[in-house]
Specification:
about 550 residues, 22 helices
Length: about 550
């Protein structure tokens, strides 16, 4: 391909040279005709032949590139590494032989960080990927050397060490902010979070700890402005909660509520504000790490708040956790109002809107018990379906299905007969009846929004029938159960079939025919052999009348069914 392009370029050059020679000759002819007759036309340059087969190659293009790479690159790096090893061994030997005292050792560590920092700063423009790492390494060496003077040699007090380490961390933050370097800010964050842990004296000074960490998070909130950092926020969020867990395991019960609660709320609000602002300004179509950070902020904040409120305010815990979720959705709505929503942004915000749903379900479980809890779960699933249909949020609509599944079958945890319970007039059947009505209403409300709405319709009648069977099983003696099962199938099937024909609702016709088909199968395969004579007569009587009525309805509306 390259040879062909070269040939074309040379051909064009030769053509231009011919035209230039012709123009020269023409100019000379017009200016001095007599002279022009005597002039000889300059020869046309011969085409330059193109060599298609190259016999010689340079060192870089040939197989000797590997030898050159070893000589120019690898040998140099190995030499630097060898000198570094020799320096470390010499330093170790000097310590062992006590050639240098404690203060000199610390100064050597401090001074050795300077060339690393200077070189990292010098190549910030020529090597943008290497520079932050080198400067971070220099900061780490400086931080470690200074801390070693406190830890091993007691060269200064705890307060002096704290101030020195804090100055190093803040200086690194300033450099990271100036260079917009996420790597360098990561080194600064690591040092800042390690300072209270490294200098801890075991006195449980949690007011200072949480005040220090909260101020650091405020600084991060400010520094991250107009940056596209993705990884550091997630690491800092994890660091905040890990430090809290490490402290709370042994000290939460004995602490005052103010500082732990303020710290948790502060981290919760600061991170949500920062990540929502990043989401508002980002042009990325897949801000995955931003979504992950928001999700973990909500999840960890809810879990840690649950822990704190369980210790300090157990009675008011459901109410306080509700305020946490209200705060999340308040910040969520604030961010939506400040954003110009396109299709991609709407999908992202729809997905974020689902983050609170598992915690709302958890809140319902925490706040209620028994049949009231089952009723609350079903009502919540219905409200989520209606809300998602109204707001046209397909993600929320999909998320409602697992909530429905859990809510509908949670009532089976209470399928036992209590004292003085009347069949079909108790809280358990009310849950079944309410679930069936909610399923039917969900279908009617969302049938134009999604094809999946048919699942609600197909589940409504079986759930009602299941509730009826549960009531018969728990509320009646054994000899009546089989007959009542058959009777309920007959009654429900006949009602569904009648309404289906009168209102011309095809699904109800299918339900009616299905119920009667089950009755016929059950009667001839099971009831005929197991029911007593009296119940067998009644079942056959009801079945016969029902089939006759069904045939009459079918013939009456036969034009519609054709």
């Amino acid at each position: 391909m390259e040879e062909k392009e070269t040939q074309e370029i040379l051909t064009r050059i030769q053509t231009m040279e011919r035209e230039l020679s012709f123009l020269k000759e023409r100019v000379l002819t017009l200016s001095s005709p007599k002279t022009a007759q005597k002039q000889v036309t300059p020869p046309v340059p011969k085409p330059i032949p193109i060599e298609t087969n190259q016999t010689e190659v340079s060192l870089q293009d040939g197989p000797n590139w590997f030898v050159e790479w070893i000589g120019e690159n690898l040998f140099v790096k190995l030499g630097v590494f060898s000198l570094l090893l020799a320096s470390i061994w010499f330093f170790y030997l000097a310590i062992e032989e006590y050639w240098i005292n404690e203060s000199v050792r610390i100064w050597i560590g401090l001074v050795s960080a300077i060339p690393i920092l200077l070189y990292g700063y010098r190549v910030r423009n020529t090597r943008p990927y290497l520079s932050p790492s080198l400067m971070g390494l220099g900061i780490a060496v400086l931080f470690s050397a200074y801390y070693s003077g406190y830890l091993w040699y007691d060269l200064y007090s705890t307060e002096v060490c704290f101030v020195g380490l804090l100055i190093i961390s803040l200086t690194t933050v300033a450099i990271a902010h100036a260079q917009k370097s996420e790597v360098l800010f990561g080194f600064a964050s690591l040092g800042a979070f390690l300072v209270p842990l490294l200098l801890s004296t075991g006195q449980n000074s949690y007011p200072f700890l949480f005040t220090y960490l909260l101020l650091w998070n405020v600084l991060f909130f400010w520094v991250r402005k107009n940056t596209g950092w993705k990884v550091i926020p997630l690491i800092l969020l994890a660091a905040n909660h890990l430090i809290f867990v490490g402290w709370a395991n042994d000290n939460l019960v004995d602490a005052k509520p103010f500082f732990p609660i303020v710290f948790q709320l502060g981290v919760f609000v600061l991170f949500l504000l920062r990540e929502f602002q990043t989401l508002e300004t980002t042009k990325s179509k897949e801000p995955i790490l931003t979504l992950v950070t928001i999700g973990f902020t909500v999840g960890l904040g809810f879990v840690q708040s649950f822990w704190v409120f369980s210790v300090f305010y157990p009675v008011a815990k459901p109410f306080l956790l509700s305020l946490i979720l209200i705060l999340f959705y308040g910040l969520y709505e604030r961010s939506i109002r400040k954003t110009e929503l396109n299709i991609e942004k709407k999908k992202i915000y729809d997905l974020i809107g689902l983050f609170g749903l598992p915690f709302i379900v958890s809140l319902i479980v925490i706040g209620t018990t028994g049949k009231l809890l089952a009723f609350s779960l079903i009502s919540f699933a219905f409200l989520v379906t209606v809300a998602s249909t109204y707001s046209k949020q397909l993600y929320m609509y999909f998320a409602a299905f697992p909530v429905w599944f859990f809510a509908l079958f949670y009532v089976f945890a209470f399928t036992y007969r209590s004292q003085n319970e009347i069949p079909f007039l108790n809280g358990r059947f009310l849950v079944f009846a309410t679930g069936s009505v909610y399923l039917l209403l969900s279908y009617l409300y969302s049938r134009k929004f999604s094809e999946l709405s048919k699942l609600f319709l197909y589940a409504a009648y079986p759930y009602w029938l299941l509730g009826t069977f549960v009531e018969i099983y728990l509320g009646f003696p054994e000899e009546k159960k089989l007959f009542l099962y058959t009777l309920s199938l007959i009654v429900y099937g006949l009602v569904a079939l009648t309404v289906g024909f009168l209102k011309r609702i095809q699904p109800l016709k299918i339900v009616g025919f299905g119920s009667l088909a089950l009755v016929i199968i059950k009667f001839y395969l099971y009831d005929f052999w197991n029911l007593s004579l009296g119940y067998r007569i009644l079942a056959g009587l009801f079945l016969g009348i029902t089939l006759i009525v069904t045939g009459t309805l079918y013939n009456h509306f036969k034009k519609e069914t054709k």
